Amino acid sequence: MLRSVMSGHTRTEASGQPETEPQKPPFRVLFVCLGNICRSPAAEILFQHAVQKAGLEHSFRADSCGTASYHIGSRPDSRMLAALKRAGYAYGGHRARQFCRADFANFDLIIPQDKSNQQDILSLARTPEEAARVQPMCRWFPPTSDLQEVPDPYYGGESGFDFVVELLAVSTRRLLRELAE
Questions:
Q1: Percentage of the chain surpassing pLDDT 70?
Q2: In 3D, which of 141, 37, 132, 53 has the Cα closest to residue 89?
């Protein structure tokens, strides 16, 4: 299980009354692809949708970024936004940004969409703990899939974007189920 479960013990104040537990901070997930305009923003949107549908907004936060600086400040690719819209998902205003070392401290789980991005992220990890936070998206693919990474639809047609949305919708729901256990 990825998310450690904290024991639910109750401390007692000097007055003998139970001390209220501070609210646990949300578990933070970062999705990463190359330019942060196709796969990773789609994964972010789909994960957030799954979180909202499950009523777990207080427990999880998601963001996305890219390993390259090509599209910093850009909206997601219009073809990805169209594929998300066809599948019934709304764009939330995301703007592309580049992965940085601070992301190791700011996120509990970092999910690259392909092997190349995983290697780029791992090359920046300075500790085994940072490296352990990096888990490939394919870990949550459906058991029937033989894919090892999320295909990049950027140079393809509409059907490639639709396929990625479908794959990520299933995978992000599987991810949330595992994290919520």
A1: 88
A2: 53
